[in-house]
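Ops channel
N.P.: pipeline sanity check, posting one input/output pair.
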């Protein structure tokens, strides 16, 4: 039996980040995943890249994990959003709001490795041997995860960072709302003749958005969303046919496109927990809310959970209070619920507004794009929203210590 301040279920992006934030605050944490996290980053289990917003980068810098990925992170200097063949488009230039890039594209495995390396410097952090979660037991003053092999990990709080199908969430009796999109995203790396100059370009088409996001050299990360049956068919095409289908949809503004692989299809679904906390349990990341990648905000939203949870737990410990008490977890729930619900609702609205070819709807969205493009305050607000710097932010997202 192992006892800590927090037991974290899930050692992917959210679980490793929350472990590091709590460790930085001086808390003892135990992390467990059904797969070995070191082996996971060495393989190609997660081939995705992530658009990290400015506030997320500030958090990762404050946690000492950014320097290790900085050289391999590609800055986003411009964003272009276009709607099919419409001449109206949105163009965000980072200089509209300051000197810093709007965000960076990082390879998920690079970030996981940086988080694992940083975690290894904290004596109070234990990465338990892999194990699947079987039971959750709540006793006065403690919560325990019981693993399938009988091991028991106990702490003041169990943090569910175990993804969209979270076992912790189910065991805690937290219900979810699900909205299937019947869309899937094809992910690949694309080589191109012309330089991207830091441009992230997203083109909305009736089947779903196609985005090319800047990587080092003349390469971009592709996130191409289509109805699921179409996505599966396209993903099986050979490289020449795949490049031709992509060029047909995306155009040739980057020159000749070449898929570099590996290629994978991710089915999409909106899943949101009705509550993010239960007795001695808190959810973070996709376990709390999984969303469509159209706005590249899923993990950024997860980091906002991480910042808020670490802050309320660290403040409790500093005051000599129980970091897993109902008051502390209620505070976390209060800080996160509205922000997550509003981002999910706006992202879902965006998907539905753009994933069709209905004439009057096309007219309305082009009007919307035109308004945001031409009215500077709207545009600045949209950019700051994408950068994650709007509103009252927890300390870590402002780049301050937890
Ligand atoms: C195509 C695509 C593109 C995306 N692009 C972006 C982007 O540009 N920007 C952005 O911010 N977000 C993006 N996202 C979202 C982002 O990838 C996710 O929000 C993020 O990866 C979620 O991480 P997580 O750690 O919460 O969950 P997961 O990555 O799902 O990790 C859950 C972990 O828990 C473990 N686990 C699960 N069940 C159990 C169990 N029963 N027992 C033990 N362990 C268990 C798993 O092994 C896994 O390691 C994108 C998503 C997709 C699909």
């Amino acid at each position: 039996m192992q006892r800590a301040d927090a037991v974290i279920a899930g050692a992917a992006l959210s679980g490793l980040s929350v472990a590091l934030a709590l460790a930085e605050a001086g808390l003892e944490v135990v992390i467990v995943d059904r797969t070995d996290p070191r082996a996971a980053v060495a393989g190609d289990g997660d081939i995705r890249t992530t658009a990290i917003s400015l506030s997320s980068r500030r958090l990762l810098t404050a946690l000492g994990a950014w320097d290790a990925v900085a050289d391999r992170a590609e800055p986003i200097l411009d964003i272009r959003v276009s709607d099919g063949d419409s001449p109206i488009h949105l163009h965000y230039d980072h200089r509209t709001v300051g000197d810093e890039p709007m965000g960076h594209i990082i390879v998920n495995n690079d970030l996981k490795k940086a988080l694992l390396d940083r975690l290894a410097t904290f004596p109070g952090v234990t990465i338990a041997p892999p194990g699947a979660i079987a039971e959750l037991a709540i006793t006065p003053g403690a919560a325990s995860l019981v693993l399938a092999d009988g091991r028991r990990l106990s702490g003041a709080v169990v943090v569910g960072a175990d993804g969209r199908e979270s076992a912790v969430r189910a065991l805690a009796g937290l219900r979810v709302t699900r909205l299937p999109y019947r869309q899937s995203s094809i992910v690949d790396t694309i080589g191109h003749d012309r330089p991207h100059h830091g441009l992230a370009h997203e083109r909305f088409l009736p089947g779903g958005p196609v985005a090319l996001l800047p990587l080092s050299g003349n390469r971009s990360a592709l996130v191409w969303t289509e109805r699921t049956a179409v996505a599966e068919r396209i993903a099986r095409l050979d490289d020449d046919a795949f490049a031709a289908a992509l060029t047909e949809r995306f155009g040739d503004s980057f020159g000749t496109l070449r898929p570099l692989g590996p290629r994978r299809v991710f089915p999409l679904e909106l899943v949101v927990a009705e509550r993010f906390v239960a007795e001695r349990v808190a959810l973070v990341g996709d376990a709390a809310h999984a969303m469509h990648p159209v706005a590249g905000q899923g993990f950024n939203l997860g980091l906002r959970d991480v910042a808020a949870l670490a802050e309320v737990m660290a403040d409790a410990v500093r005051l000599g209070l129980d970091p897993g008490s109902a008051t502390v977890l209620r505070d976390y729930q209060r800080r996160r619920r509205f922000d997550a619900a509003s981002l999910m609702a706006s992202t879902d609205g965006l998907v539905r507004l753009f994933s069709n070819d209905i004439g009057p709807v096309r007219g309305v969205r082009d009007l919307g794009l035109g308004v945001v493009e031409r009215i500077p305050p709207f545009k600045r607000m949209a950019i700051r929203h994408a950068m994650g710097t709007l509103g009252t932010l927890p300390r870590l997202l402002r780049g301050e210590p937890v």
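N.P.: looks fine end to end. The first strand starts at residue 2 and ends at 9.
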